[in-house]
Amino acid sequence: QVQLQESGPGLVKPSQTLSLTCLVSGGSISSGHYYWSWIRQPAGKGLEYIGRIYTSGSTNYNPSLKSRVTISLDTSKNQFSLKLGSLTAADTGVYYCARSPIYSGEFDLWGQGTLVTVSS
Amino acid sequence: QSALTQPASVSGSPGQSISISCTGSNSDVGGYIYVSWYQQHPGKAPKLLIYDVTKRPSGVSDRFSGSTSGNTASLTISGLQAGDEADYFCSSYTGSSTPQVFGTGTKVTVL
Prior knowledge:
By secondary structure, chain A is an all-beta fold. Chain A contains no helices and eleven strands.
């Protein structure tokens, strides 16, 4: 079955850029049936939508993060990536990649999540 | 786009039924049929329980059910079990520049 797996550094310094990758296994990221999204969760808090990308490369970002976020797709490696710049301590939390069907939008498949700590 | 409002906590005894509310607006919950619910155990990723307001993915127990009334969606857990103790989040399509908004989350405690 399809699985998602996040990877990236667990510790990043303030003002630097976070780079995370989500590897999609067991299925093609180019199927055209899904959006591929990033979602984050500060410790003990709720979920926050960061943004998503479609097979065509079109993106959508949370307006509150838009100036700092870039999501890209690498179909040759069957993975998609997140870059978040100008980091502060408020960006600390667990980052999840997730899949959502294009006609309804629920997040039907999630990665296990990766903890990112922003600290000097 | 503001987060959807959920009660911080709900509790119940084993075997009982509980409901969790998720209140939004005409721009999200009340305007579309795309409401979903997620269960999250500590240290784990969220798991999809309900989508399109009332539908259950394959493998999800029929003890979980969803509904809406106006701008409020609800998740009902019947026959409450110890394993249902977790955090629950709702989400809705918004049709705005942020296509999905999440609820504030509800901690369910089984007494």
